[in-house]
Amino acid sequence: MLPQVLFSGLALGSIYGLVALGFALVFKATDVLNFAQGMFVVVGAFLAVTAGTQLHLPFALTLMFIVVAAALIGAAIQALLIRPLTGRSMLSIIMVTIALSIVLRALIEIIFGPQPRALTTPMPTGVFIVEGVRISQLHMLAAGVSWLCLGLFALFFRFTTFGLQMRATANGHEAALVSGINVDFVNRVAWAIGSVLAAIGGLFLAQLQLASTELEGIGLLALPAVVIGGLQSIPGAIIGGLLVGLIEQLASSYVSPRSADIFVYTLLLLVLMVRPWGLFGQRELGRV
Amino acid sequence: MGMWGIRVGPVLGLAAGLLLGASPLAFAASESPADGVYADHIDWGVIMDLSGPTSASQAVWTAGIKDYIRKVDDAGGINGRKINLLVEDERFDASLDRIAFEKLTGQTPVLGISGMGNASAQVALASTIRRGKVPVLGSYTTTKAVTEPPTPMFYGGFCGYKEMAQVGVGALTERLKLAAPKVVTVHLDTAGGKEYADFVNAAAMRHGGSSKAVPIKANAADATAQVLEIIASKPDFVAVHGTATTPVLLMRAMQQYGLPTPVFGMAYIGTPIVYNSLPPEAGSRYSFVSCFTPGGTDDSAGMKAMTESADKFGHSAMKDDINYVAGWVIGQLVTEAIAKAGPDVTREKLVAMLSKGFSIDTKGLSAPVSYTPEDHSGIALLKPFGFDYATKRFTGSGTYDEARKYEQ
Q1: Which of A86-95, B195-204, B245-254 is predicted least confidently?
Q2: pLDDT at residue number B296
Q3: Residue of chain B with shortest Cα separation from A250
């Protein structure tokens, strides 16, 4: 039983990690705690329903539609809602993201109605059996895509000029501006990428269960994941996601489903008390 | 000229004027604004979750009741009065239920209230409902707190948990020819879920069998833990309590593990979305028990009328959903109760009429809906339903009356 539970936890955690990666990326680049990230997961699920189930687009086009539409939505939100608040307090911006989440939920319910939608895609639904452990092909795919995204972003940040500009912006907006970096554009791209990552998470979650606004709750598990891993850390977001997935599955299997929240948030509290910058984050030092 | 030398024309004119003038006065006399009854309309309250975790089913129920009321209003209303539904969104939050209930009983008074699909809120408000003056007619969920003992202020409107458990266990035990059924109940980790698991256990024990309760979170993304528990328990069949995502997650995970165990769900989760989300080989092992007949199952008169209205009001996609049918039936229940209470209806008269016993004929849309002075649950009979993937239609097994044998 244990290997099976561990594998399911890692697979589920990979999806949480993907959503957490988007959350961390936005925070790293723009210093904004985006509480609408869970609703971006829902938006991704309904973009998939629109393209795949309603417009009957081929799967490759469905994927392109999700990526492009989610990127445009993320960029538009940054331009219309976040940018005008530059220089305002963190609380104001957090309130905007909470309001955004409520507005997105209402819009989705108006457009798609109250009923959940079934997502039909050609993603695999079978299983591999390895040493008696049943491995869901969909879980494998979700984990694979998550790790691919992690790898691509690691390379992007490490080896591309734009990745370097994003890192520079994250380290200090003023210094980046003085260096000639278009900080506003960098922020917009960060929001677009964060939105796309959440939308891909939404695609997998909708395939695992149903496309509904209730996916927001699952998407918001990215929040403890990213805090545990370290708000500023890209690998930390992924590993935080994996930890949350593992804890959830182990607690559900060996204690009770409800206890999963207790274990996840106890770890969150412990991390905040002992290592507030997260397991993989960097401690910020201020000179006075 | 008349016999006393008075011109008849003006007198007749005055008499006619008095008569005409008196008619609005007569209407005004039958008004009872404190009860939500006015000359041209009656206010009726609905409290349901329209944007919370159970909105996927409760908003569909609300669409059903709205459509029935609209159909009645389009035909002229009841005794010349239209029915005005005041719908309150409680977001599955008991505190909002209380606010909505207070509002509909005092601030914007209504003649009666339907819905109240939050079991926890219903239990919390039970004493208020029992002591109050506003009848709850056609609830979406029915708890013991408001029905045992019955109160003249509460009348259920959905299949009971106990009956769902009894019919589900009984029908599968018979179909699988089991001497002592071994059951696993996968249920939401809530008070209602635990109550349902207890009813399944009692039903299994009645057949000489046993059951094990396995909880699952409402917003679970995976059912591996539950399926591993099912594998360990080796049940003859599985009972499910939850939202639409619960059977979807469970059946998919069971398929992943190659488990062919039959599964039955409660009425709330006998919806097209569940079957459409499952491949036929998994969906064909899933059945549900219900006291309402899902759209498209047969060609009864009630089904035809509901289908016609759903298409007319733009709700064609909802008519196969059991929750829409339930809302529609409660719309009929409410309007017929108001009509039977008479043209001078008040809360008091409505309660007096209901408490003596009342029934409606849904013309095939549900099991009999009937209240007696001793039993206010309303709908007692259920039967099993499945889904035919070839015809994309729901299929019922036998009649509601035949399933009576499974109930204690």
Answers
A1: A86-95
A2: 84
A3: B225
Is ipTM > 0.90 here? no
Residue A231 pLDDT exceeds 50: yes
Q: Do A257 and B189 touch (CB under 8 A)?
A: yes
Question: Which one of B217, B256, B277 has the shortest CB-CB distance to A210?
Answer: B277
Average pLDDT, chain A: 88
| CATH C-level class of B161-290+384-406 | alpha beta
pLDDT range class, residue A121, cuts 50, 70, 90:
confident
Report the DSSP pairing between strands B393-396 and B383-388. antiparallel
Domain ranges of chain B: 34-159+298-377, 161-290+384-406
Contact between B349 and B341 under an 8 Å Cβ cutoff? The reply is yes
> Phi and psi dihedrals of B113, rounded to 5?
-130, 140
Q: How far apart are the C-alpha atoms of A54 and B378, rounded to whole Å?
A: 40
Q: Alpha-carbon distance B103 to B98, whole Å?
A: 9
Look up residue A2 and give its amino acid: L
For chain B, what percent of residues have pLDDT higher than 90?
70
Other CB atoms within 10 A of residue A114 CB: 23
Domains plus CATH for chain A? 2-274 (1.10.3470)
How would CATH label the architecture of B34-159+298-377?
Answer: 3-Layer(aba) Sandwich (3.40)
d(CA A17, CA A237): 6
Q: Are B233 and B258 in contact (CB under 8 A)?
A: no
- Pairing status of strand B358-360 against strand B154-156: unpaired
DSSP B116-185: ---HHHHHHHHHHHHHSSS-EEEESS--HHHHTTT-TTEEE-S--HHHHHHHHHHHHHHHTT-SS-EEEE
- H/E stretch holding A24: helix A2-30
| Contact yes or no for B277 and A106 at CB 8 A | no
The region of weakest confidence among A18-27, A98-107, B67-76, B85-94 is A18-27
Q: Which residues of A touch B216 (CB under 8 A)?
A: 252, 257
pLDDT for A287: 61
Residue of A1, A106, A257 with shortest CB distance to B217: A257
Q: Which residue of A has its CA nearest to B63?
A: A114
Q: What does the pLDDT look like over B147-195, one tens digit per residue? A: 889 999 999 999 989 999 999 999 999 999 999 999 999 999 887 889 8
Give the residue ranges of DSSP H helices in A82-160: 90-112, 137-159
Residues from chain A contacting residue B256 (CB–CB below 8 Å): 127, 134, 136
**pLDDT tens-digit series, residues A162-209:** 888 888 887 777 888 888 889 889 999 999 999 999 999 999 999 888
Cβ-based contacts of B117 with chain A (< 8 Å):
none
